[in-house]
């Protein structure tokens, strides 16, 4: 109805064949026509709307020779927007994404989600393994502290005994000392193997 209105012919009109329409002054068109038919007066938004419904701009002015919106002529066309064929208007629909593209994107999302879930499960397993290793390490450290305390107590007893005994029992002390060292080495090996 905008294009067919005789009062608007100075701003918007059909081409001679009725297969496209011209907008002669985008600034005045935005100020005078858009607010009457739309909730805005933004020409760029109007052009975006046309594009969303499959209209194409036919560029008449060569690159670099465009003037201001006041003098530039814009031409738009759509195969189902024709002056003498209003029954085609019902075929003008907002562009939707191709169903195959949607299906592909949906598959990509599901694949990404599955990958992320697998990655999360792997991280959880690694975290549990780290927790177990940390717990074992703490337990081993406690056992080593106990063993070290026992060793120090035994060494003190041996030193006390050595200072109180005569040199004749020195051989007994050396035997006890070597036995103690063997015992300590076997305990450390046992703890480290855990």
From TrEMBL:
It comes from Rhizopus microsporus var. microsporus. The keyword Transcription regulation applies. Belongs to the HSF family. Residues 120-154 form a coiled coil. GO terms for cellular component: nucleus. Its main location: nucleus. GO terms for molecular function: DNA-binding transcription factor activity; sequence-specific DNA binding. The keyword Metal-binding does not apply. It holds the Pfam family HSF_DNA-bind. This is HSF-type DNA-binding domain-containing protein. Keywords: Coiled coil, DNA-binding, Nucleus, Transcription, Transcription regulation. It is found in: Nucleus. Residues 34-58 form the HSF-type DNA-binding domain. InterPro entries: HSF_DNA-bd, WH-like_DNA-bd_sf, WH_DNA-bd_sf.
């Amino acid at each position: 109805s905008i294009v067919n209105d005789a009062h608007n012919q100075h701003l918007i009109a059909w081409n001679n064949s009725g297969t496209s329409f011209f907008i002669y002054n985008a600034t005045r068109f935005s100020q005078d026509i858009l607010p009457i038919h739309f909730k805005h007066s933004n020409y760029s938004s109007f052009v975006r709307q046309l594009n969303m419904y499959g209209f194409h701009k036919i560029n008449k002015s060569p690159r670099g020779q465009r003037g201001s919106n006041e003098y530039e002529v814009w031409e738009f066309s759509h195969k189902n927007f024709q002056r003498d064929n209003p029954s085609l208007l019902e075929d003008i629909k907002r562009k939707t994404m191709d169903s195959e593209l949607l299906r592909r994107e949906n598959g990509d999302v599901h694949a990404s989600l599955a990958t992320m879930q697998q990655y999360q499960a792997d991280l959880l397993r690694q975290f549990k393994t780290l927790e177990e290793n940390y717990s074992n390490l703490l337990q081993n450290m406690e056992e080593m502290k106990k063993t070290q305390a026992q060793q120090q107590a035994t060494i003190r007893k041996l030193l006390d005994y050595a200072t109180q005994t005569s040199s004749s029992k020195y051989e007994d002390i050396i035997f006890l000392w070597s036995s103690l060292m063997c015992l300590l080495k076997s305990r450390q090996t046992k703890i480290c193997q855990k």
